[in-house]
Amino acid sequence: MKDRRQFQRFTADVLDMHGRSVFAKVARILDMSLGGVMVNTDTELNKGKKCILRVQEEESALDLESVVVWSALHENPEASGSDLVPPYKTGLKFTAVSRATTKKISRFIENHAQTINKQEVQQNKLSGYRMNVRVQLQAPANIMLIFHDGFRIKNLSLGGMLTESDDPLEIGERLLLKIFRSRTNTINVLGKVTSCIEVKENDSQHYDIGIAFKKMSGKDKELLRELMCLLETMCCIAPSNHNS
User: Fold this and answer.
1) Span(s) in the chain for CATH 2.40.10.220
2) DSSP letter assigned to residue 101
3) Other Cβ atoms within 10 Å of 100 Cβ, number
4) Hey, which of 14, 84, 107, 114 has its CA 20 to 30 A from 220?
């Protein structure tokens, strides 16, 4: 079948090119302590994955560096229609928590504790919160998990790229991307996931993720064109059967 792609694709293996993506997932807080939080998420998250838990309120934002310690399917059979909640429960441990951040977490817990827990919250406030005291919260709806993921670039064109990543992404998900052309030059672009294919090799696995470029500045477009010219000069034309 004839390849109908608009842009010529080039393999980037010869340059050993990498990048970093930034994307967000909606979450719902279930309970929280000074040491961590349990949230609902719409996908399972890998243990050890780092993220930032961002709680956006009217006049302030609370950003907490976190790491996934567990994630499991936990469907709610009683939920239906608009009451459906994300099916995964995920435990996050806060990392690099300063004294000032601990005070912010304490204040957040006090402000959003469920009514049935108010007395317990006040009792713990008098004696000082312990790291393992978990309090159920009525938290604001605007909760996001922000991820920064690295990836290897397999092939590249003016319109998009095929990347290799340890973690899957949802088709249609939008990402802020940095393509590292050198230590000093990066190409910044807004991308959209167009494909995600699991690849198993021996005892390991990864995901080939196709990304379409949606928006970039004039400067970044020029840097990308220069990079395409370099790959063309090096005769790095990608095979037509790639999934980018």
Assistant:
1) 10-21+148-233
2) H
3) 7
4) 14
pTM over 0.70: yes
Rounded (5°) CA angle 191-197-201:
130
Q: What are the tens digits of pLDDT across the range 146-165? A: 999 999 999 999 999 999 99
Q: How many residues does the chain have?
A: 244
Neighbours of 202 (CB within 10 A): 5
Q: Just give the CATH number of 10-21+148-233.
A: 2.40.10.220
Confidence of residue 86 (pLDDT cuts 50, 70, 90): low
Q: What average pLDDT score do residues 176-182 get?
A: 90
- Which residues is 94 bridged to in the sheet? 66
CATH 2.40.10 given to domain 24-144: yes
Q: Phi-psi region for residue 124, left (φ > 0), alpha (ψ -120 to 50) or beta?
A: alpha
